[in-house]
Amino acid sequence: MNRLFKRLSSGLTKTREALTSALGNLFNKEGVIDRDRIEQIEEVLVLSDMGLNTAHVLIEWVKGEIATGRIKDPSQFRYYIKMRLKEMMSGNQSGLNPDTNRPYIIMVVGVNGVGKTSTIGKLAYKFKSSGKSVMLTASDTFRAGAIEQLEVWAARSSAEIIKQKSGSDPSALAYDAVISAMAREKHVLIVDTAGRLHTKYNLMEELKKMKRVIGKALAGAPHEIILVLDATTGQNALSQVRVFNEAVGLTGIIVTKLDGTAKGGIVVPIASEFKIPIRMIGIGEGISDLIDFRAEEFVDAMFDEER
Amino acid sequence: MLESLALKLDNVFKKLRGKGLLTEKDVTDALKEIRLSLLEADVNYRVVKSFVESVKEKALQQEVLKNITPGEQVVKIVWDEMCAIMGKKGGTISFSPNPPTIIMLVGLQGSGKTTTTAKLANIFKKDGKKVLIVAADTNRPAAADQLEILGKSIGVDVHRESGKDSLAIAMSALAKRLYYDILIFDTAGRLHIDEELMEQLREMKLKLSPHETLLVADAMTGQDAVNIAESFSNNIGIDGVILTKMEGDARGGALLSIRAVTGKSVKFIGVGENVDAMEPFYPERIASKILGMGDIVSLVEKVKKNISGDSLLNLEEKIKKDSFDLEDFKEQLKQLVHMGPIEEIIGMVPGGSRLLGLVNSGPGYQKEINRAVSIINSMTKEERRNYVIINGNRRKRISKGSGTSVQEVNKLLKNFFQTKKMIKAFSGKKGKTALGRALSSVRF
User: Fold this and answer.
1) Domain A98-295: CATH class, spelled out
2) Are the beta carbons of B191 and A285 separated by less than 8 Å?
């Protein structure tokens, strides 16, 4: 836990600096909370990418707390904001449980460039490390080089990989992979998909088909459909979650690139608006840099100074 | 592209335009809503602040408020300010007077550098330039494979080597400079900005001394977009920005913020996954689009690009002789499909953002055209030339042949009559000039 905190916290340094310095300055001075100060809070929160709506919800809540006299001084302000954010996100933390089925089939979806393939590589490594047999299928048959990229990751985590040449039918490949994973009694099968912008009707239909086909090969599968989200994405992330969820019914979200300069604030509205668990977060380029999401740690790392 | 922002602003302006006189309060209320829309669109908080202040200052002047169409005046001010923050110049690359021109692309992982490298090369190749693209990204697995496949698909030479570091690869590519007009270097990205990456890129830039260093960034990036652009700008120096993934429902935040913060213009925008899906960026056109004024210039260019000059001439000839037949109709329908999704076209028409919700578009529309084409394909040559002979029996046969119903065949014929009638009206005295103007404006 300490290691995770440290890691996440070093990754989130930027977020923390931005959030705490402004919030700190705001209330370390004596005086009342006037309009300017409210606007400053708004700015800090909006700059974190949590969006204007969430920022306003928080601000209204702060105002309410001030009215009831619960927030009186600067140190308390930060405490309450943190508490509120943890509350908002606490319902969304639950990791993957691959023991519920064998093979446990995970389908990974997302828009282009969010880090789907790398995330699959890290997931495979994680399952492998816990003694599971893992099979990957390179169903991103569209993007040039995607299959080769997954092969490299498969080798790194010594997972088995099922592939076909670029341009072949991803659904057919997924079907074959499920059959083969069952025949070889694999613990986990992870199905990669081509990145697609959620506004492309045909590509979203293709995704629905893939899900159906996997379900035909094995009733009840896929057991998990994960959307991979880039933490640097702005408010567009909300429509990504909405549209992918409507198309295939998401069971989980993985947020990547949280170690960057992005503030990751988009996690807040996603967690509070959708009842979809945030399974994991990506905090680096290394193969083990994928950790469980904990609202508590996440918020602490966002706000706390060095421990 | 940018529809959600356009629609929101349209609602704001509708209220302003409806008023004969504007009070100070009208303007401040409108600005409040504009501020909200921009922030919801991920425009940088500070950019929004200064944008709103500067619009306010100009809009509250007496001559604006007393103008006979004050609403239009305010829209004009917003348009001016938008153009101002996006910069005057758009998609221009400065070519070296002594070829080759060396272009270096930098950016974070997943922003679309490799695809953009190929798209840029494709644009230059179409201009008749000889291009070499260089896979200097040794970080991401299979990045070189991806570039090689893309290079092959557009017929552009690719330089790749394995077992060398990126700088060495870049240098041996540079040795081939005499054989090319343009060299484009695809560099490694990282998940985020760090000193190691910047050091590596600085060194490469020093060795290559590129004429253009372009930052590739994802248009869907949130408030962090300006931080990314700023660090690349400050650390290695960039000459411009290419924004990718604009074809989704990107809201325009990065587009409107980057230049205001970094002073570097957006030069190209990526609008699709295929190698030809990249366009030069024109601030004024985009501003018009965001403000619901449409983008007629781009529409005309699109028509030019997709409809060959020959087929237009033929059409003109046919119209003159009144011999527009079903075969021509089929060609017209097919070209409509080539133009791309109807939403995109409507979006370029003034006020189009308002229409988008009303139009029955999307994949159903494409299907309908395909059905129409297959109905015409099931006709004999004689029938296509002379629709009058298509009687009940023939209609039955055609519907069977195309797997449709007689009703659908009837509907298609009705559409054809209407089109023919419209064309006839066009080619009348008055229409002739109007159509002639329209056609001559799209000819090469």
Assistant:
1) alpha beta
2) yes
Residue A107 to chain B, least CA–CA distance (Å): 20
Output the CA torsion B112→B115→B120→B125 (10° steps). 180
pLDDT (0 to 100) of residue B305: 63
**Model confidence pLDDT, tens digit, residues A73-118:** 655 667 778 888 888 888 888 888 888 888 999 999 999 888 898 8
Question: Among B36, B224, B247, whose Cβ lies nearest the Cβ of A261?
Answer: B224
Given an 8 Å threshold on Cβ–Cβ distance, is B245 in contact with A111? yes
**CB distance A114 to A258 below 8 Å:** no
At residue B183, does pLDDT exceed 70? yes
Task: Tell me if A261 and B228 make a contact (CB, 8 A cut-off).
Answer: yes
Shortest CB distance from A52 goes to which of B40, B110, B150? B40
Task: Set out the domains of chain B in order of their start, with CATH numbers.
Answer: 3-86 (1.20.120.140), 101-294 (3.40.50.300), 299-442 (1.10.260.30)
Residues B159 and B200: beta-carbon distance below 8 Å:
no
Q: A2-90: which CATH topology?
A: Four Helix Bundle (Hemerythrin (Met), subunit A) (1.20.120)
Share of chain A above pLDDT 90, in %: 26
ipTM confidence score: 0.75
Alpha-carbon span A10 to B261, nearest angstrom: 27
Q: pLDDT tens digits for B23-65? A: 888 888 888 888 988 888 889 888 999 999 999 888 887 777 7
Domain segments of chain A: what residues? Answer: 2-90, 98-295
Residues in A touching B111 (Cβ below 8 Å): 113
CA distance A114 to A197: 11
CB A236 to CB B249 under 8 A?
Answer: yes
Who contacts A295 (Cβ-Cβ below 8 Å, separation ≥6)? A85, A86, A89, A90, A92, A93, A271
**Average of per-residue pLDDT across B101-129:** 91
Among B198, B224, B232, B249, the strongest candidate for a mutation testing the A interface, having the largest count of A CBs within 10 A, is: B224
Maximal C-alpha separation, chain A = 70
d(CA B367, CA B112): 31
**Which tokens sit at B149?**
């496949």
Q: Residue A3: pLDDT band by 50, 70, 90 thresholds?
A: very low
Q: Cα–Cα distance between A114 and B304 in angstroms, integer? A: 35
B321–chain A nearest CA distance, Å: 41
Taking alpha carbons only, the member of A53, A64, A55, A62 closest to residue A27 is A62
3-class DSSP assignment, residue A302: helix
pLDDT bin (cut points 50, 70, 90) of residue B372 is confident
Rounded Cα–Cα distance for residues B45 and A234 (Å): 12
Q: Which of residues 20-79 of B touch A (CB under 8 A)?
A: 36, 39-42, 45
Q: Secondary structure of B146-181 in the HEC alphabet?
A: HHHHHHHHHCCEEECCCCCCHHHHHHHHHCCHHHCC
Average pLDDT over residues B152-179: 88
Digit-coded pLDDT (tens) for A166-223: 777 888 889 999 999 999 999 999 999 988 888 778 888 889 999 999 999 998 889 9
Average pLDDT for A255-277: 83
Q: Order of strands, edge to edge, in the sheet holding A224-230? A: A160-162, A134-137, A188-192, A104-109, A224-230, A252-256, A278-282, A290-292
Q: Please list every residue in chain B whose beta carbon sits closer than 8 Å to the beta carbon of residue A259.
A: 191-192
Minimal CA separation from B162 to chain A, in Å: 14
What's the whole-number average pLDDT of chain A?
A: 81
- Residue B90 CB neighbour total at 10 angstroms: 20
Residues in chain A with CB shorter than 8 Å from the CB of B251 are 234-236
